[in-house]
Write a structure and sequence with these properties.
The complex is a heterodimer.
Chain A: E1 6-7, E2 9-17, H1 22-35, E3 40-45, E4 54-62, E5 73-78, H2 84-90, E6 91-100, E7 115-119, H3 121-128, H4 132-150, H5 155-165, H6 173-190, E8 197-198, E9 209-212, H7 213-223, E10 228-231, H8 238-251, E11 263-266, H9 270-282, E12 287-291, H10 293-309, E13 313-321, E14 327-331, H11 336-340, E15 350-352, H12 357-374, E16 377-383, H13 384-388, E17 390-393, H14 412-416, E18 448-450, H15 464-484, E19 489-491, E20 499-503, H16 507-520, E21 525-529, E22 532-533, H17 537-544, E23 548-553, H18 559-568, E24 575-579, H19 588-599, H20 602-608
Parallel strand pairs in A: 1-8, 2-5, 5-6, 6-7, 10-11, 10-12, 12-13, 13-16, 15-16, 20-21, 20-23, 23-24
Antiparallel strand pairs in A: 2-4, 3-4, 9-17, 13-14, 15-22, 19-21
Helix pairs in contact in A: 1-4, 1-5, 3-4, 4-6, 7-8, 7-12, 9-10, 16-19, 19-20
Chain B: H1 38-52, E1 60-64, H2 68-71, E2 81-84, H3 90-100, E3 105-111, H4 112-118, H5 120-129, E4 133-139, E5 142-143, E6 149-150, H6 173-180, E7 184-189, H7 193-205, E8 209-215, H8 231-237, E9 238-240, E10 242-247, E11 262-266, E12 272-277, H9 287-299, E13 303-310, H10 317-321, H11 333-336, H12 340-349
Helix pairs in contact in B: 1-7, 3-5, 4-5
The chains are: A alpha/beta, B alpha/beta.
The complex binds thiamine diphosphate (TPP), iron/sulfur cluster and magnesium ion (MG).
Chain lengths: 609, 351
């Protein structure tokens, strides 16, 4: 068996034990590759546990810049005896195994085709350190040092990174550099010329940044002017509320008074969290919550209130594997239908589908404008893959002249001037009424907000005609929404195509790669990335322009496809579902194979091989 | 239907307050509750209190849950914004509203079903946080709006109109409010305007969570012999611990008081509460003693009313959160957005 040899195109997987301090060392490795101008895609695969269970970190080194999960492993850093057999089984034929060789391991536990990179990590640590915690932590840095040598990486770049990382804790720099050298030197003496995987300096990273989606969305909420956040902890959304807190502490504390231009509350549950969000938005502050599937289930009654009483609200749904508690630490796109029609009675909500952290930042800020403009709930549908992993993406952007769109809020001056106010009166023909904020004017503009049926002036009414009028206007308002939400993005194949593909959110990374491969093999597919619900006209036009449409989703029930069938009145026979829902991020390999299986033409088969 | 009468034109002789408003200006729409419902009396007391306090109606926000009680905000303060939310969730909606704008007066109106059953958790948690609000629970021991089922405040052993006997222990909202950290806890009776109006005024002046558990008989489903929340029962078993007089900030308190029988409490806003003590051993500044007293009197079959507890210095939610003095809902991009240049710096940190 020939050992794999590859330059800037391989996957390194780290198998660790949760809570062993491996995360920052693994991230250091990924960032070091980036510093050499070579794109990486990194993913955490972690258990719903704090300490002791297995956890993995996958780094795809991709000189071509593909950021989806590739699938397969070329080099395994096997640091967890518990998962040893499973980890070894996962390595591609002719791959590499880096492991702790302090204790002898019987030959029967290895695979013959693998090239071994044995390093006595425990031994090195026991000699160098006396503190058990240091022995554990530096073991991780030492294997990074080994990798830096084995993969022919730039040692100086890694050292720079360490220096930057510990800038505020300077005394940690020297011991970390030393540990890195231990690994590097050991590899130079014992593992010279063994590894056929190499990282070669490139210029493919450019000005891109490496950031997690929850972090970016939290920052987007700060930029978007959110002042109130109420939330209840749940994986994988917690780090969004925490990121908002972190960014607020940095940017929103009044320097003179040290007081906060934000109010963040950990609520007693998700019902209370969304209640606070509605109360604050009703009162004119931009407020949001972040949650995941189980929280969305609980919030539904108040979602319906937001829809019917027309109160702006922003909710981030960081989707995880459902149903029920499901797979809390795995990714899925399975809350679409729940979110779109959440609440009893005839309800619909605006959904946004960011593809990566950069768009999570952009849509986070946009969600507040949309919610206030449309006076309704807007859900930003992220997922664990985007939220909890660092992604290489274009820098975050903000137009320096950008103003918030605070929607139709009638002022005291307008009321004073005699402008007619009816809370649910459509004066502009776009089905969006004016609202007033509590405390605006002493004698004009007050109204009573209610979730019970009401007329144009917010008065209680049980009259069927009055009720229908409001419900029809809400439908019309949803039409208005179509023209305001982000438009879908079209990718044309190299040549005219009879096939189309629709996808959204985090599937984007794998999709681009799959389409390029299929295109290269002569199977041309046009693709449309849907970025919002309600679906705009372009979605229908795209479907009409193609014979058959693949809809690629990360759920079992083809939820987006069903929503399109429903909302756009399209024959279901036009669609072919490509569904990936085992909780891992979808890969290009999976998509290519699934499409090849369906069309069964030789060229797609070729691409799949 | 009872009417809080609403002539279009005010009688020129109607007395006005300092803002030039008459009592009528504090009224709302015509009530749709049953004639004689205790809840309407509470609405009338709220109107009276706000009128006497010279409150600008639009500076009040009224929020409620679902129930006959929760409908009432439509029937008072017609110039105030109202928010009739969903069942049991008024506390969270009000908390959010208060976070957004700390400058308004927040009146939360709820029922015993709304607060002690479906909204039990939210009731407790808003007390813990010290949300600056008046929390009025219009407590009739039944679900009025769904036609007379027992609520969680119905006393063990009490009989429903149809004859069913309640076998569950009762929740005492006043005791619970004390346990959860409310800084102002009072109990009153909808039929006792003399006691209720000054209590509402004091609760409005109080900074922090002020809870008023107001027994409010449901004439349709719970005002019969055998109900402990009926007019007759409360009149016979009422045990008032003190008599309250509310003195607004600008009036100096000149009343001389006999030590041991009267006590003066100074509120955040500079107003004074003058407590005439009916029970010389009752001390409203002692949370533990208040709890004990409530239990003792309840065991003796009495309903204690009056100001049960007050801590006029307790910090409120905004102090805990350290928010700026200006309301958050008034800030714009200049105050809130770190800007395009800063984003360049941030981007660099992620490279
Ligand atoms: C989620 C939900 N469940 C049930 C109801 C039905 N419901 C309406 S009012 C009410 C009870 C109200 O009792 P209470 O709060 O004591 O008010 P009262 O009518 O006695 O003043 C119930 C159960 C509802 N509106 N919402
Ligand atoms: S049912 Fe009872 S609580 Fe409801 S309005 Fe009638 S008397 Fe009042
Ligand atoms: Mg009741």
């Amino acid at each position: 068996m020939q050992p794999i040899s590859a330059v800037n195109d391989f996957v390194v997987k780290f198998a660790n034990v949760n809570g062993s301090g491996s995360a920052s060392a693994n991230e250091l490795f990924a960032r070091s590759v980036l510093r050499m101008g070579v794109p990486v895609a990194s993913r955490n695969i972690f258990p719903s546990n704090i300490q002791g269970l297995p956890t993995w970190y996958e780094v795809r080194v991709s000189g071509d810049g593909w950021l989806g999960r590739r699938g397969g492993v070329d080099l395994m850093v096997a640091m967890n005896p518990q998962t040893w057999d499973k980890d070894l089984a996962e390595i591609d034929k002719g791959g590499y195994l880096l492991y702790d060789s302090t204790k002898p391991i019987p030959a029967s536990r290895f695979r013959k085709d693998l090239t071994l990179l044995p390093v006595p990590l425990t031994d090195i640590c026991n000699h160098a350190y006396s503190d058990p915690r240091q022995r554990q932590l530096f073991k991780n840095i030492i294997y990074v040092g080994v990798l830096v040598f084995a993969l022919d990486m730039d040692l100086a770049a890694v050292k720079w990174l360490i220096a930057e990382q510990f800038e505020s804790k300077k005394k940690l720099i020297a011991p970390n550099l030393q540990a890195l050298d231990f690994g590097y030197d050991y590899a130079r003496e014992h593992l010279l010329g063994i590894c056929g995987l190499k990282v070669k300096r490139q210029d493919k990273v450019g000005d891109r940044i490496f950031i997690g989606g929850n972090d970016a969305a939290g920052l987007g909420a700060v930029y978007g002017g959110a002042t109130v956040c109420a939330w209840y902890p749940i994986t994988p959304s917690t780090s969004l509320a925490e990121a908002f807190t972190k960014h607020c502490k940095r940017f929103r504390v009044d320097p003179a008074t040290k007081k906060n231009k934000f109010a963040i509350l950990q609520a007693e549950d998700e019902i209370a969290a969304i209640g606070m969000v509605l109360g604050a938005n009703w009162n004119g502050a931009r407020a949001f919550t972040a949650t995941s599937g189980p929280g969305i289930s609980l919030m539904q009654e108040l979602f319906g209130f937001s829809y019917y009483a027309e109160i702006p609200a922003v909710v981030f749904d960081i989707q995880r594997g459902g149903p029920s508690t499901g797979m809390p630490t795995r990714t899925q796109q399975s809350d679409l239908m729940l979110a779109a029609y959440s609440g009893h009675g005839d309800t619909k909500h605006v959904l946004l589908f960011p593809e990566d952290p950069r768009e999570a930042f952009e849509f986070a800020a946009a969600a507040f404008d949309l919610a206030e403009r449309l006076q309704t709930l807007v859900l930003v549908m992220m997922d664990l893959d985007i939220g909890m992993n660092d992604w290489l993406c274009k820098p975050l952007a903000w137009d320096k002249d950008r103003k918030y769109d605070r929607g139709k809020v009638m002022t005291a001056e307008e009321l004073e001037a005699g402008k007619e106010f009816g809370r649910y009166l459509d004066v502009d023909g776009d089905a969006i009424p004016y609202r007033t904020l509590p405390g605006t004017h002493p004698t004009k503009g007050a109204y009573f907000t209610r979730g019970s049926s009401h007329d144009r002036y917010a008065r209680y009414s049980e009259d069927g005609g009055v009720y229908v009028e409001v419900m029809q206007r809400l439908l019309q308002k949803f039409e208005t929404a179509k023209s305001l939400v982000p438009k879908p993005v079209l990718h044309k194949a190299k040549e005219p195509a009879k096939f189309g593909a629709i996808y959204f959110g985090s599937t984007s990374a794998a999709m681009g790669e799959a389409l390029a491969a299929l295109d290269d093999h002569g199977l041309h597919i046009d693709a449309l990335r849907v970025r919002a619900f309600p679906f705009s006209e372009e979605v229908v036009e795209f479907i009409n322009a193609h014979e058959q449409i693949f809809v690629v989703e990360q759920n079992r029930d083809a939820q987006l496809q069903k929503m399109i069938v429903n909302e756009c009145a399209i024959d279901p026979a036009r669609f072919i579902s490509i569904l990936h829902y085992d909780g891992t991020p979808v890969t290009a390999r999976f998509i290519i194979k699934a499409i090849a299986d369906r069309v069964n033409v030789g060229k797609a088969r070729e691409a799949a091989e | 239907m009872t009417y809080i009468a609403k002539p279009k034109l005010h009688h020129p002789g109607l007395p006005t307050n300092k803002l030039g408003f008459t009592r009528r200006d504090y009224e709302g729409r015509i009530s749709t509750l049953c004639a004689g419902c205790g809840h309407d009396s509470i609405s009338a007391a709220l109107v009276q209190a706000c009128f006497e306090l010279d409150i600008a109606p639009h500076r009040v926000a009224k929020l409620s849950g679902i129930g006959c009680s929760s409908k009432t905000p439509d029937y008072f303060l017609g110039q105030s914004h109202g928010f009739n939310s969903v069942h049991g969730r008024m506390p969270s909606v009000l908390t959010g509203a208060s976070m957004a704008n700390r400058d308004l007066i927040y009146l939360g109106v709820s029922g015993d079903g709304d607060s002690a059953s479906i909204g039990f958790g939210q009731f407790a948690h808003c007390m813990r946080r010290g949300v600056n609000m008046v929390y009025i629970c219009e407590n009739n021991g039944v679900y009025g709006l769904t036609k007379g089922q027992f609520s969680a405040t119905a006393d063990k052993g009490s009989k429903a109109k149809g004859g069913a006997v309640n076998s569950d222990s009762a929740i005492d909202l006043a005791s619970l409010a004390l346990l959860m950290g409310a800084s102002f806890v009072a109990r009153s009776f909808s039929g006792d305007k003399k006691q209720l109006v000054p209590l509402i005024k004091a609760a409005i002046a109080h900074k922090g969570s002020a809870v008023l558990d107001v027994i409010s008989p449901c004439v349709t489903f719970n005002n019969h012999a055998g109900s402990t929340k009926s007019f007759d029962f409360v009149r016979d078993h009422n045990e008032a611990v003190n008599k309250l007089d509310f003195v607004p900030p600008e009036k100096e308190i000149t009343v001389d008081y006999e030590p041991g029988t009267t006590e003066v409490v100074r509120q955040h806003d500079g107003s004074f509460l003058k407590l005439a003590k009916l029970h010389s051993d009752y001390d409203p500044s002692d949370r533990v003693a208040a709890l004990t007293y409530l239990q003792e009197r309840a065991a003796a079959g009495e309903v204690v009313t009056g100001l049960l507890y007050i801590d006029a210095t307790a910090p409120d939610l905004h102090e805990h959160l350290g928010t700026v003095d200006a309301p958050l809902n008034r800030m714009n991009e200049k105050e809130l957005c770190p800007g395009a240049d800063m984003l360049e710096t941030i981007n660099a940190e992620y490279r």
